[in-house]
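Quick question, first post here. What does this chain look like in 3D?
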Amino acid sequence: MSMGRFRPLLGIVLAVMATCLVACGGSAAKIPTTYTPEILQQVELYSPAVAELRDRFPELQGYIQKQDWVDVQSFIHGPMGELRARVNRLAATLLTKDKPQAQALAKELYVHLERLDEAAANGQQVIAGQEYRNALDDFDSFLNLVPTFQ
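> Answer (accepted):
Ran it through. C-alpha cells below.
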C-alpha cells in the first residue's frame, strides 16, 4: 500500500485528536481553596435557616425529658422536617475540601433523628436521649465547618 491512501485517514485521526484535546484539555475551572465573596454570599444566604433549627434543639430535649413522645415526634416531623433540605443546601455551598465531611455529618444527623423518632415511638427514653446527644454533636460538628460572619 502506498502512503497516499493513509494520508486522508491520518488527517481525520489528527482532527479527532485535536478536537478531543481542545474539548477536554481547555482551561480547567480552578477549585477554590478559600472562600470567595461569591461563595460567602451563598453560605450567608443558607446559614441563618440552619442556625435557627440548631437553636430550637433544646425544645426537643425538653420533650424527651418529659417523655412527651407525641411532641418529640411532632417536632422531628414538623420544625425539623426542613432540616435535611436546609443542611444539604448549606453543605453544597462549602469548599470542595469540606463538602464530603459536611455531607457525612449531615447524613449521620439524619440517622440520629430517625433513631430518635423510632425511640419516641417505642417510649425508650434512654435511647432517645442518646440519639438526641449524638444528633446534637453531629449538628455542631457540621456547623463548625461553616464559616462564621462577624
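The chain is about 75% helix and 0% strand.
The two ends are 76 Å apart (CA to CA).
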